[in-house]
Amino acid sequence: MGLMQLFKFKGGVKPATNKAQSVTLPIAKAPLPSVVAVPLHQSIGGTPRPLVQVGDKVLKGQMIGEADGWISAAVHAPTSGTVREVGMYAAAHPSGLLTDCVVIEPDGEDRWIERQSVDYKTLTPEQVRELLRDMGVVGLGGAVFPSHAKTQASRSVPMEELVINGAECEPYITCDDLLMRERAAEVVKGIAIFRDLLQPKKVLIGIEDNKPEAAAAMAQAVQAAGEDFQVVSVPTLYPAGGAKQLIRVLTGKEVPANKRSTDMGVQCFNVATAYTAWRALGHGEPVISRLVTLTGNVAEPRNYEVLIGTPMDELLAIAGPKADTDGIIMGGPMMGFLVPEAKAPVVKATNCLIAHSPALFPPKAPEMPCIRCGSCAQVCPHELQPFEMYWFARAKNFGKTQEYNIFDCIECGCCSFVCPSRIPLVQYFRFAKSEIWARERDKKAADGAKTRFEFKQLRDEREKQEKAEKLAKAAAAQAAKKAAEAAAAAAAEGGAPAEAAAAPAAQSPEEAAAAAKKAAIAAAMERAKAQRAQAQPQNTDDLAPAQQQEVADIEARRARLRDIAKTELAHPEAHPAEAAPAAPADDGQTPKN
Amino acid sequence: MEFSTSPYLLKDTSVRRVMTQVLLALVPGIVAYALLIGPGILAQIAIATLTALAAEAAMLRLRDKPLALFLGDGSAVVTAWLVAITFPPVAPWWLTVVGVLFAIVVAKHLYGGLGQNPFNPAMIAFAVCIVSFPALMSQWPGPGSHLAPAQQLDWIFGLAPRLDGMTSATPLDALKTALRADEGHSGPLPFLAGNAQAVIALCYLAGGLFLVWRKIITWHIPTAFLGAMGLLAGLLWLWQPAGFANPVFHLLGGGAMLGAFFIATDPVSGATTPRGKLIFAAGVGLLAYIIRVFGGYPDGIAFAVLIMNICVPLIDMYTQPKVFGMKDQ
Ligand code: SF4
Ligand code: SF4
Q1: Which atom belonging to ligand 2 lies closest to the Cα atom of A413?
Q2: β-sheet bridge partners, residue A289
Q3: Where are the strands (E) in A398-444, listed by range?
Q4: Chain A residue with minimum CA distance to B73
Q5: Does the beta-carbon distance from A326 to B17 stay under 8 Å?
Q6: Which residues form a coiled coil (chain A) (predicted)?
Q7: CA distance linking residue A82 with residue A57, whole number of Å
Q8: Position B219 pLDDT exceeds 50
Q9: H/E segment holding residue A69
Q10: Cβ contact B49:B85 at 8 Å
């Protein structure tokens, strides 16, 4: 283990780790479940499109959902069997909402597709990334961000450090610990893949110092592979395993909320992600299983290799939950959640299931008022002022919560952990964030609707004006015709007057049309203006400068749109292309965002 | 099943536990007080505690709040103890009662109860009483006078006539008088009842350090308070040793230690950000010095704290710490 200077992050707490229970036994393979339900959406980004239908036979490892866009990752059948359902199913999500799943009835044979190992060094980086995406490799530390999308260095900033996260700071969870102890060589091979894609100057593997066995195994594997990765023991302090915290500890860099870590020359992957990357390329195995710690109120806590899609209750039963178990926490006790539906399937983000019991996690004491003791601020790893955010979240003053940087909050739970008044601070922050998102969405929808409305008005005006033009033309033609007839009659009578009559008649159709058009445009513009003025009372006077700026920006955007529309009115035939995509007024589509 | 959200693991703590530790930290100072100056202080603490609990219960009932939960949080008892030990030990019982009632009913509950008071309740009590009853609030056992326990109780409960000769001003007052009379002041320590007050102050210091160690308070407020007061006192003393007392006298005399560790650190009414705490406490230290040296009151802590309480929202607003990753932007 290399000796190197470590940095500190502010705050952090030291909850009882409760890891010893589940590390005594080696990793075991969970038995084939009675059913597997594979959610299509298991990563950040686009929801994969299903590739199978009810009744289809699938093989283990067969792609059943194809990545939708670049930020997305494919999903695969965890075992061979028959597709019984493609539709809504219970999900591992705190909301309790259903999600799109492919439900497979295993045939018991567990028969693989043909697996092909590839020598990724013969492929271009682009091909490697595509392969990782199609193998469903995503961040297994819990964030489930598609890994391939993180393997591109910034164009302007050279990659300095690749940080590999083996910290595993959450209490109870030990799956990364066991993975490193038992499969270190393959983790190292996976790290090499990310190293080759990103080309960093150095690779730092951070492991909390309460896992000496894992650190030793990793160091040995690194040496055996002839790599120059550094295995670094970091002080045990929750949340040292947060990506930003670990980057800080190992490199001294603080990646702010508004920046990508590659913009600062650093990137971070979890050890389990590295392992699956190697299995994908080196063995042709897509991500169809993962290690899950079964612990808490169970007879035999242990780590299992579990197929994605395994129902949680069925899985937990293996560890023998005790009689007073009254729920399942997915994830750790600091950031996890009680699953609302026990049959919800294990997903790629499921690193741990904790059998919940009132004895293990006593009901929370009643909430008291905040005494501004500042404990929450002292432990916040992002150096926020939780009690101020709480105060404004409670008052539903969400603008203020944003001023206090609520979106920098990683929901680590340190603040709630120490609060003597037992205020569920994180719960308030989640509430505030979701409210802000909802309002953002509403506002966007409303803005979209307003823009569409204005376009529709302008278009109506244009149609009216075109009608007027037509009428004018018809009238002019009529007049011309009459004049011509008159002229003809006159000509029949004698030569000279015919010319005199014909001259104005010849001019008249064009002039009349032009005049009518002008008048119609002017009238239309006037009406539109008046309507706009009515529709938009300018109640923007007592806003904060930032908001006024925002309003001004929006107004400017609208003005631009109006200008485009106006040019269109004046020269209807000049810009047909611009009008078409910009005015989806009546097609009944909702805006995509 | 109770459906709560994470974290499910909580540190074993509560408001009650925090308050209990504050009380515990006060004990050494109180014991020294009782031994060196007299047990009257114990009677005062008892009177104050009972009054505070009764007032708290009545207000909770009026405001329709869960009685057991809030009465047990210990905050009223902390206020009561601070009132008792900042008031003269031989003050008549009703003065203590009036002070505590003011602290609990007006300064705390009329402002919204626990966590809502913009002013330090104990200091409101002190300020109101010293303005309303200046003579009674200035009667301290004189230098070298040892009042018998029974006599102290007689005074507190009004059973014996108060002899003006037996009580005098605080050491700070005495100093002020002495300096005005051009008698100079040479001793390094306050001289009330021997060095009793310095010993008590050191006990408060020990209790305060316990609170820092237990992470109930941070170092910022005591350090800035004592630092600012000591610095100003030191400068003036260096400039005119005959005209000003030395800084040790100021730090160990009057309510400086108590104020620095137990009063200015009241979280509810004080500044909360690290830099804010430094500014807030330095302000209290400086103002307290100015008031006690140049003002008309025996000590300046109470007014200094109340004045700085007013500035807290502003201080907090302008001292918001930079968040993670935003320090050099
Ligand atoms: S820890 Fe709780 S009581 Fe203390 S300031 Fe934060 S929210 Fe308030
Ligand atoms: S949950 Fe958010 S506010 Fe609370 S300590 Fe963690 S980052 Fe800070």
Answers
A1: 1
A2: A307
A3: none
A4: A368
A5: no
A6: none
A7: 5
A8: yes
A9: none
A10: no
What is the per-residue pLDDT for A499?
Answer: 45
State phi, psi for A25 to the nearest 5 degrees: -105, 150
Q: pLDDT tens digit string along B80-90?
A: 999 999 998 88
Q: How far is the CA of A210 from the centre of ligand 1 (A)?
A: 30
Q: From CA A353, how far away is CA A360, in angstroms rounded?
A: 14
Q: CB neighbours of A341 closer than 8 A, spacing ≥ 6?
A: A90, A91, A96
Closest CA to A34 of A315, A303, A295: A315
Q: Is the Cα dihedral B223, B229, B232, B237 positive or negative?
A: negative
Take residue B120 and report the two structure tokens written for it.
Answer: 């330090």
CA distances (Å), origin A117, targets A114, A148, A278, A284, A286: 10, 18, 10, 5, 11
Per DSSP, helices labelled H in chain B are 15-36, 40-62, 67-71, 75-86, 93-101, 121-132, 134-137, 149-156, 171-180, 196-213, 220-239, 247-252, 256-258, 274-294, 301-318
Amino acid, single-letter form, for residue A13: V
Contact A378 B4 (CB under 8 A): no
How far is B11 from chain A, CA to nearest CA, in Å? 5
A412 among annotated binding-site residues:
yes
Contact present, A338 and A328 (Cβ < 8 Å): yes
Q: Which amino acid is at A51?
A: L
Residue B169 backbone zone (phi > 0: left; psi -120 to 50: alpha; other: beta):
beta
Question: Can you tell me the distance from the alpha carbon of A317 to that of B231, in angstroms, rounded to the nearest whole number?
Answer: 68
Contact (Cβ atoms closer than 8 angstroms) between residue A167 and residue A208: yes
Give the start-to-end residue ranges of the domains of chain A: 20-50+67-105+129-356
ipTM of the complex: 0.87
Provide the token pair at A246. Answer: 């670990």
Cα–Cα distance for residue pair A140/A166, rounded to 1 Å: 11
Pair type for strands A266-270 and A289-296: unpaired
Where chain A has pLDDT below 50, the residues are 1-2, 494-506, 533-543, 561, 564-593
Contact B116, B59 (CB under 8 A): no
Give me the mean pLDDT over the B33-39 stretch. Answer: 85
Supply the DSSP string of B282-297, one letter for each residue: HHHHHHHHHHHHHSSS
CB A313 within 8 A of CB A293: no
**What strands lie across the sheet with A327-330, from one edge to the other?**
A28-29, A302-307, A289-296, A352-356, A327-330, A337-338
Instruction: Note the pTM of the prediction, 2 decimals.
Output: 0.79
Contact between A234 and A250 under an 8 Å Cβ cutoff? The reply is: yes
Identify the sign of the CA torsion A475, A476, A481, A484. positive
CB contact at 8 A, B81 and B48: yes
CB B90 within 8 A of CB B154: no
Q: Does domain A20-50+67-105+129-356 have CATH number 3.40.50.11540?
A: yes
CB contacts, 8 Å: B267 with chain A: 371-374
